[in-house]
Amino acid sequence: MAEQSLPVADQDASAEEKTSSRPGVSRRALLGTAGATGLVLGAAGGAAGYAAAPAAATPLTSVGSTEVMFHVKHQPGITDGLQARGHLVAFDLTPGAGRKEAAALLRRWSETARRLMAGEPSGSDDTDVARDAGPSSLTVTFGFGHSFFSRTGLEKQRPVALDPLPDFSSDRLDKSRSDGDLWVQIGANDALVAFHALRAIQKDAGSAARVRWQMNGFNRTPGATAHPMTARNLMGQLDGTRNPKPSEPDFDKRIFVPSSATPSWMANGSYAVVRRIRMLLDDWEKLSLGAQEAVIGRRKANGAALSGGSETTAMDLEKTDAKGDLVVPINAHARITRPDQNGGAAMLRRPFSFHDGIDADGVPDAGLLFVCWQADPLRGFVPVQRKLDRGDALSQFIRHESSGLFAVPGGAAQGEYVGQRLLEG
Predict the structure, then answer these.
(1) Is 239 a catalytic residue?
(2) Where is the Dyp-type peroxidase N-terminal domain positioned along the sequence (predicted)?
């Protein structure tokens, strides 16, 4: 959907391929399946009964067995493909907790994340929620909010890029569900694996931090379609066509902070903008198919630009119809968000959809948990959102309800925890 930003983000069509993952059956999974029994089927294909003796362990499917590495150059959960289940959580340090307590917390969190991502129990008090599952592409990502640095006496280490986002006219923000000292992103291709990680992270916070807000999301499960394809959002639009790709020569420059960065603790890190964007689905679904496509600027069926071609065909912004009108409307979302219409501004969008129930009037509380990554939000998210604020056709069908900006340091090296260079530097 979105070309280079916004609310409705475009995710790379090959997003389901885990470029930083590896297949393998975890120790926990092998233990969980070691005593499995086989189901005997009768000649007619019905269930005749259970086998009397234990059968050989059944190997995990590719969904369950895929493992993402914790100790990597960039934290996991940034360039990995969309996951079926996600939890976004912000924490505030408790009164009296400072730099020392924050360091101990990040050390605990990092070890728990490493263990769970490898498919191991979280520790001695593991809840066994995910006992029978493999890693399921679990990723756990940690970031720091603007307020974290004053709470820990590290104001001099706060990056300029972490300055608060400007106000946008379309914002209807709930401050209680915005910002936070610390941010954790959890994603997995199994809901129980994701919940298990969420519970472990929350328990690890102990007396050092309390939950400020939590949001739960989902995506299509990898393998649910006959072949890999761009995911759809809750408006039914293909959502991810023009996301930056790691194969592009300037990808790292756009998405990651360089190794020579100041402050140095942010080297190889990135900045995450997090927005809860409610979709006004009742209003959207009243539009005809043609009207919906005019709002977006792309065909709903296959994601092709209204100017023609396939999903990946470059959009012709000058093409007109027989009446001389632009084929892609001037206020179409896909036109406004194109990088070449925004001075090259780009970000890597990696969202989750959400549905938090139906109100008394039958209106769904649903939409997009928008997460985008960039080397500098002042050159990525901000200029594009400002332009959207001035006349995006999609704006009347969405509402920005919460917002946060977080500095996400580079990945932890072997023997380190995330944020160690900041907290012990």
Answers:
(1) yes
(2) 75-219
